[in-house]
Backbone:
């Protein structure tokens, strides 16, 4: 379970996340959908304990598999070396490296140094790292960015199976409505730091029009 309870955060006096609350149940994929600067990454960092909230709190069943927006790793390390190192950090067995490498589609890149990967390849290594140890919760910050169309489909399949096969709670951020509709059971719409709506894509006939209207209304804030 992943729960945000009235999370609030200011930067330099400006409130960039305001009173944000939502829950992700086990077995559920929830999309965090909002325009650039809406507060998605900031909220996720508070959920992960990487950033202190100014108000509210978070409850997350750990450990958490985290795919950051910008994935950083020691550039000279091989993909295998990096995943083995992360397996050690997460106290899971190094057998798990082969499993996550296959699941994330990086099994043929294990000998390559991180510094020589393409953007999409790096993104998949980031996913592989998040999968280590089969955690009960996942926070994925724009998981499909930089991926080609075939990889996007594969990434979405992996994400669905985390919830539907393994029973994990999955929160993913995106600005792509198509992505939200195709992978998510529920979507939390955020704009200008506030939750504007929660929708079930299947039950919302024109999600795009609704999203654009909510974002447009948010522009009138302050
Ligand atoms: N460390 C920081 N210091 C000052 N302002 C920040 C900091 N981090 C984020 N912000 C501001 O907070 C707001 C929300 O940023 P955030 O990164 O959470 O947005 P986002 O929804 O993830 O956007 P994107 O879709 O572009 O990734 C932005 O206006 C951003 O400039
Ligand atoms: Mg972001």
Residues:
């Amino acid at each position: 379970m992943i729960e945000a309870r009235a999370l609030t955060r200011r930067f330099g006096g400006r409130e960039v996340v305001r009173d944000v609350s939502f829950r992700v149940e086990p077995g559920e994929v929830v999309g965090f959908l909002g325009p650039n600067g809406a507060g998605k990454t900031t909220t996720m960092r508070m959920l992960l304990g990487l950033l202190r909230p100014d108000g509210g709190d978070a409850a997350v069943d750990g450990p958490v598999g985290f795919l950051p927006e910008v994935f950083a790793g020691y550039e000279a390390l091989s993909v295998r070396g990096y995943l083995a190192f992360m397996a050690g950090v997460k106290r899971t067995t190094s057998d798990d490296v082969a499993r996550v490498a296959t699941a994330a589609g990086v099994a043929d890149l294990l000998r390559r140094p991180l510094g020589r990967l393409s953007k999409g390849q790096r993104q998949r290594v980031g996913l592989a790292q998040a999968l280590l140890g089969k955690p009960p919760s996942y926070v994925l910050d724009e998981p499909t960015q930089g991926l080609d169309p075939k990889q996007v489909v594969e990434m979405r399949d992996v994400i669905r199976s985390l919830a539907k096969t393994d029973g994990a709670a999955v929160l993913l951020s995106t600005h792509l409505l198509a992505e939200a509709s195709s992978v998510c059971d529920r979507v939390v719409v955020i704009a200008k730091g506030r939750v504007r709506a929660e929708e079930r894509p299947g039950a919302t006939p024109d999600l795009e029009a609704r999203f654009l209207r909510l974002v447009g209304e948010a522009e009138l804030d302050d």
About this structure: The beta strands are 2-11, 14-24, 29-33, 55-60, 64-67, 137-141, 169-174, 186-191, 194-199.
